[in-house]
């Protein structure tokens, strides 16, 4: 039966075609190191989306159009799903 350590080792060894290891920290001994990058990315994405919402509201209040309001709601839904996946993966990496 595979353990969390086995799964993290496989995830950490996964390579892109370019040779990069996007989850290279997955097999770190420190849980914080394993999850920090993913949680930082999720936080950054949420901050950017929050800023876009604030900007759109300000532009609307000034009588100007906003590209944010013209976005496809499916795009926003996929962005939130992606952020949720980052958080889920970070939670997995925190398991011992």
Account of the protein in words:
With 96 residues, the chain is an all-alpha fold. It is built from 3 helices and no strands. Helix 2 runs antiparallel to helix 3 (73-94). The mean pLDDT is 87.
Low-confidence parts: none
Principal-axis shape:
elongated
The main β sheet shows up as: none
Average pLDDT level: 87
Q: Given the helix and strand composition, which structural class is it?
A: mainly alpha
Order of helices and strands: HHH
Q: How many DSSP H or I helices?
A: 3
| Helical percentage | 55-70%
- Our estimate of the beta-strand percent is under 5%
Number of strands: 0
Q: Oligomer, anyone?
A: single chain
Rg over C-alpha atoms, rounded to the nearest angstrom: 18 Å
Terminal residue distance = 15 Å
């Amino acid at each position: 039966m595979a353990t969390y350590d086995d799964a993290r080792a496989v995830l950490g060894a996964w390579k892109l075609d370019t040779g990069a290891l996007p989850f290279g920290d997955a097999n770190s001994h420190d849980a914080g190191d394993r999850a920090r990058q993913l949680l930082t990315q999720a936080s950054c994405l949420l901050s950017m989306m929050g800023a876009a919402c604030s900007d759109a509201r300000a532009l609307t209040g000034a009588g100007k159009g906003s590209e944010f309001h013209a976005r496809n709601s499916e795009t926003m839904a996929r962005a939130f799903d992606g952020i949720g996946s980052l958080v889920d993966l970070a939670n997995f990496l925190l398991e011992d």
